[in-house]
Amino acid sequence: MTIDMDFVESQFPALAGRRYIYLDNAGGSLVLRGVADRVRDYLLTSSVQHGATYSKSREAGEKLYAAQEAVARLINARRPDEVIMGPSTTALLRILATALGETMAPGDEIIVSQAEHEANYGAWERLERKGVKIVEWPVEPGTLRLNPQTLAGLMSPRSKLVCCTHASNIMGTINPVREFADIAHAYGAKICVDAVAYAPHRLIDVQASDADYYAFSFYKVYGPHHAVLYGRYDDLVALPNQNHFFIEPTRVPYKFQPGNVNYELSYGCAAINDYLVELARRDVKAPASERDCLAAAFGMIARQEERICKRLLDYLETVPDVTIHGETSANAHVRVPTISFTVKDRDSADIVTQMDRHNIGIRYGDFYARRLIDSLGLRQRNGVVRVSMVHYNTLAEVDRLIDHLDPIIARNAAIHA
Fold first, then answer.
1. How far is it, in rounded angstroms, from Cα 85 to Cα 361?
2. 341 near 325, Cβ under 8 Å?
């Protein structure tokens, strides 16, 4: 199955005419027309408070619940009330950390990978105030991968939680989350997975991953500035309430949504499913069930992304002064098309700002994975240059990037020759 790029372009209004090249998608993807339409529809027809007996309130509540069901199907949760929606992954993980922290005792250990975005590190580090010990799980030198054997060596009877990313927002490396989960569970610990950098690229299956907690942001997945945290229902019921004192323990997910959830953004998220299903059904051999369509759509996405990823990686490997941080293979099974690199003796900011005038959006920095960037000694060079692509990017756009990038970084190689 091949991706229908005409259809894809028609669903993202910002792509009209391809006058600008969006290659900062790991920072935030473009928004689907269907998402914006749903947000608008909700605000103009259903903007009433939920929980009342009058018909409009009931209708609005049904829309919100339908969106919750759609997200549950997208991630393959067992039931809709395992889906907690909120303003951001950072905020949701803070809520989870506060709740879990109330169940922990001094000396309990939380293992956190060195590759984390700060959302899945800082929230847990705050628990050190009550005596919880943070154990850092380092990346492997050279490959920068997270090694399961290293994790196993860090586990102990005091281990209560393992925190890791499904895909690095710096290296693009896809981690074997199920293997990590098996190790954690063998010691009676739970695992919390940050999937922000993974969710736009591959189909999520929280049951197959066996993750206990799993979070990502919809604004990286063609949706609004909104996020989701998954947790097993029994675990969520058992955790302390983070809402008003009179909210019952079984009121999941509401007990983790102080101030309530954003109704219109939640409703808008359901359009992500609609887009993926229609993308799959553009192919004459598309399967009938929604889940199979989601799988087929992400299969198309992976193949398209592998092609554009390979084009850029192949070029970068020809430039002597370039260091690619992460996998150099474009294989869709080992990485997503988030590519970070540095150039010998060059400030990453200088490279990126020279690209700005060409209407190409790339980025430099630590991308909130500061601990990893510091460990690589790159903060003084303004971190890495990051090119982050998704399926709506094309080979022609990558070629245009290379055409403008080459005089900047290849010149550096000539100087050092």
1. 29
2. yes
Question: What pLDDT sits at residue 286?
Answer: 72
Token pair for 351: 């490279």
Q: Model pTM?
A: 0.96
Q: Thinking of the domain 83-260, which architecture would CATH place it in?
A: 3-Layer(aba) Sandwich (3.40)
**Structure tokens that stand for 297 in this block:** 């759509």
Q: Which CATH superfamily is domain 5-31+300-416 in?
A: Aspartate Aminotransferase, domain 1 (3.90.1150.10)
359-384 in b/e form (b: 16+ CB < 10 A) is ebbbbbbbbbbbbbbebbebeebbbb
| CB proximity list for 276: less than 8 A, separation 6 or greater | 293, 294, 297, 298
Condensed to tens digits (0 to 9), the pLDDT of residues 130-175 reads 999 999 999 999 899 999 999 999 999 999 999 999 999 999 999 9
